[in-house]
Amino acid sequence: MGEKRAFTLVEVIVSILILALIGIGSYFSFSILSQVELDSQERFTAMNILTNYFERIRAVVREGGDRVFSTLETEPWIQNNQWIPVGSTGLTPNYLPSQYPSNFFTRMISVSTAGTTTELKRIEIAVQWPRRRGEGFNEVRNVFFLARPQPPLPGNIKGSVKDRNTEAFINNAEITLIFQDPGGVRAVIYSRSSPDADGCNFDFSDPDTGAFRLSPGNWQIIVTAQGYQDYNPSPAHIVWVPEGEEVILPPIYLDPKPAPAHIKGRIVDPQDKPLYQYVSLYEKGSYVARDHMWWHSPRSFNFKIDFEDPQPRCFTLVTSSTSSSWSYPYRYNQHCGDFCDPQGWGKSYNYRGWSSAVVREDGSVVCDNPWIGSAITDRLCVNPGDNLDLGDIVLVEVPLATISGYVRDSTDAPLSGAKIYIRWHDNARWYPYPAGSTDNNGYYQVSVPAAQELFPDTSNYYIRMTAGRRMPKQTCCNQGGTAWRESGWVSVGPLFQGDSLQQDFIIPYPPDDQCGDVQGHVKDEKENFYLEGVRVEIGGRESSSNDLGYYKIECLPEEEGCSIPIGSHGVRAEKSGYYTFESDGDWPYKDRPEVNIQQNEVATYETIRLYPRGYGTIKGRVLDVANDEPIEGAEVWLDVYNDNAGNKYDSLTQWHYNYVTNTDGEGDFVFSHVIETWPPEGIDDTYYQTNERKHLIAVTHTEEYEPVILEPFTLKANQELDLGDIHLTKKGQM
Predict the structure, then answer these.
(1) In this predicted structure, what is the pLDDT of residue 677?
(2) In the prediction, which pLDDT does 95 show?
(3) Neighbours of 486 (CB within 10 A)
(4) Backbone phi, psi, residue 357, to 5°
């Protein structure tokens, strides 16, 4: 046997070191492998998040269609070009393992148009997460391209509308479909009197080709027809239209409205003579309808009362001589103590005609009741089918007196053609307006209410009278003219029935005008040169600027004196090719001072700065969104200076727009010589208004396509603006 030998100390130490190194190496190998596994897992998760984001975007666009695709860059859930914590806001992915907090990964989505085409979107998605070692972030990034989604195959809805009581088909019922999608379309069609082979009397397919036109999805249906209660149930009647399929609805039954009622009668005097009277109907104090005795033969009134349900309706009926509730000269033959007096005409007399709220069935009066009735005092109640005949309502004439006299000038000369005006008393309504006029001798005679027969207890209700006429005077440039002058109001009374009083009037002459002149200059604001041929108008007189831009408004050589009445006057200046100036701040100029004319002096007005009008050209092309084929004959409507920029019209009616043209065989259109939008660049905001006034364009094409209204846009002087391709979508498609 060999000799046994123990390990030396050095060998033991070396062995320990070797074992330690092996252990450390194994640990670091395990740590490195673990770290690599974590990095791979995080990168794998980030790639899944990135891919999932794109799939979510594609799904949203597929569901929202062309509308979402066109506005993808501005959709709030995209938050274009912003770094957003995953899972905290915006579009959240389906894939996010639970071991990661919502802010561990952040994402950025960038959406833009791919090149020059509008049919392709470039979508760049990046996902970041913090590094395990050191500072900074790891990142994965990818670019996707998304094409404009093709419109889905349209569907259709058919059905019938019937009378619930008779089962008869209802003709001309209006069937309205409302697409249950933001910005969705609205479709309207009318029912027919006879059904088709499917037993339907309404159909939303194309009547000529039979093609389906409704976008797949949920549609709300509403039906209305004359003589029937509306079909608009709660909750709403929603119809699901599958892609490419036709839905045939069961019959929709409408309930007939209750039969109408009638309220009729006559307004007569005590001798049974029909009176020229309006008759008004009120319900709970609110105006409902108006009739007139002279609208019927024989003379009468007749109100048709429609019902939505079988419940009775109650009304107040009021007579009057005018379309208001004022009724002079006829009234109900009863006095009414402490009668309400909303117009200040006095109390203790019923001057207003007849009211069923005040006059009861037995002829008694209730003075405290409101003249046009209320929910409590409406007493003329009718049920469906009733025929309420009020018979004869007897009114008597208000008692009259006579006033006559002469109208003269300050030299006591008679004045012909002077107007005589009368009112009951101070602050009361005019009656009539005017009451009469003078003959060649200045004489007049009028019939007036016998005020003290009506209001015997006070002189406050004396008749008020005045006379007026245009009187001669000397005007500027020593020309003859006239001015309206009145005698002044006087109180005339007392007046009892049958009285005859005399009241004379004197109308003074107006003073002659005091006058001055005015001068100034006009210049081109843009090019800074003085303008010739500008028409300047001040105080009803005008002049034109010479080649130095100078103007002076004065009397003609054959005239005398000065041309403009003293005082402050507005200024207007206009020339073809320039924006018209008005000192009162009429667009596009701001408020400027008026000119102050002094007697026999020449005032100088500040230099007027006219801005030249600029014009440009607008063109574009109209295409079918489904195939990019040009649409010939599309109407393009241009609205210049759409002051509500960004506010699209609720209805597309041509009168909203200033210019209309049609596309040619290539789908092209052109508007030439279009006024520029406002304001031009570099305009002086101290002299000119600078609020934006843009243009608006709408495109429509028969009933086949949905109309399109573009966003308001700007047009500069001498610019040729190309709006590019404008796509129209066929109705019922997305």
Answers:
(1) 93
(2) 54
(3) 16
(4) -80, -30
- Calculate the CA 209 to chain-centre distance: 37
Q: What is d(CA 616, CA 720) in angstroms, rounded to the nearest whole number?
A: 6
CA–CA dist 78, 598 (Å, integer): 68
Nearest to 90 by CA among 148, 149, 49: 49
Nearest to 700 by CA among 642, 641, 631: 631
For residue 24, give every residue at least 6 positions away whose Cβ sits within 8 Å of its Cβ, in sequence order, or none: none
Distances (CA, A) of 560 to 474, 479, 536, 554, 600: 12, 9, 21, 10, 11
Residue 183 is predicted with a pLDDT of 61
Nearest CA to 463 out of 414, 415, 400, 407 is that of: 400
Output the pTM of the full model. 0.50
Q: Which residues pair with 683 in a beta bridge?
A: none
Q: Which of 331, 335, 339, 325 is nearest to 368 (CA)?
A: 339
What are the Cα distances from residue 454, in Å, to 20, 341, 347, 353, 496? 129, 14, 9, 14, 8
Quote the pLDDT of residue 153. Answer: 86
Q: What is the identity of the amino acid at 560?
A: E
At 87 the pLDDT is 64
Q: Report helix, strand or coil for 563.
A: coil
Measured CA to CA, the distance from residue 616 to residue 312 in angstroms comes to 65
CB 355 within 8 A of CB 318: yes
Of 316, 301, 404, 393, nearest in space to 353 by CA: 393
Contact (Cβ atoms closer than 8 angstroms) between residue 536 and residue 580: no
For residue 100, which of 52, 44, 57 has the smallest C-alpha distance? 44
Would you state the pLDDT for residue 648? 40
pLDDT at 552: 98
SS3 state at 334: coil
DSSP 590: P
Tens of pLDDT, residues 24-54: 655 444 444 455 566 788 888 888 888 888 8
> Residue 121 contacts by C-beta under 8 Å, 6 or more apart in sequence?
69, 72, 111, 112, 113, 114, 145, 146, 147
> What was the pLDDT predicted at 263?
98
Residue type for 471, please? M
Bridge-partner residues for 224, per DSSP? 174
Phi then psi for residue 603, to 5 deg, are -80, 150
CA–CA distance, 173 with 194 (Å, rounded to integer): 12
- Label residues 384-406 b or e (16+ Cβ within 10 Å = b): beeebebeebbbeebbbbebebb
CA 121 – CA 79 distance, rounded (Å): 16
pLDDT at 168: 93
Give me the residues of the chain with pLDDT under 70, please. 1-7, 10-12, 14, 19-38, 87-99, 182-184, 322-352, 424-434, 454-460, 642-657, 731-734
Distance of CA 304 to the CA centre of its chain: 33
Pairing mode, if any, of strands 500-502 and 479-486?
unpaired
Residue at 406: amino acid letter: Y
CB 550 within 8 A of CB 519: yes
What gap in Å lies between CA 262 and CA 19, rounded to an integer?
Answer: 116
